[in-house]
Q: What sequence folds into this?
């Protein structure tokens, strides 16, 4: 569940979409029961109940509450390109070096064949 919500930081993911991704083919009642347990467990794991928001039958990670490495990676790359275009190779190299230090492989490569 955390991976799914992290793929959409600050955006709501519907309850039905979460259930379908996590337990394909399960009936709605059992899916909702399982989702309640998963949400409770995730809130306990994160240690801050307010990080997982619920509204309008959807869930989201609270925008700005979690810093994701993929967002940092994208920021460093963008910053590096900006500096390169601005004829600042020293700053470009520093930003792109920071991006490389964050890179650990393809995004969610362990889930490459998941449908979500």
A:
């Amino acid at each position: 569940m955390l991976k799914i919500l992290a793929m959409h930081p600050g955006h709501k993911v519907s309850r039905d979409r979460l259930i379908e991704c996590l337990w394909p083919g399960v009936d709605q009642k059992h899916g909702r029961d399982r989702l309640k347990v998963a949400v409770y467990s995730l809130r306990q794991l994160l240690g801050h109940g307010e990080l997982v928001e619920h509204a309008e039958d959807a869930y989201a990670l609270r925008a700005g509450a979690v810093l994701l490495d993929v967002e940092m990676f994208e920021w460093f790359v963008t910053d590096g390109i900006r500096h390169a275009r601005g004829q600042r190779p020293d700053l470009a190299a520093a930003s792109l070096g920071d991006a490389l230090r964050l890179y650990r492989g393809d995004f969610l490569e362990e889930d490459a064949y998941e449908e979500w």
Q: What stands out?
A: The chain has a mean pLDDT of 86.
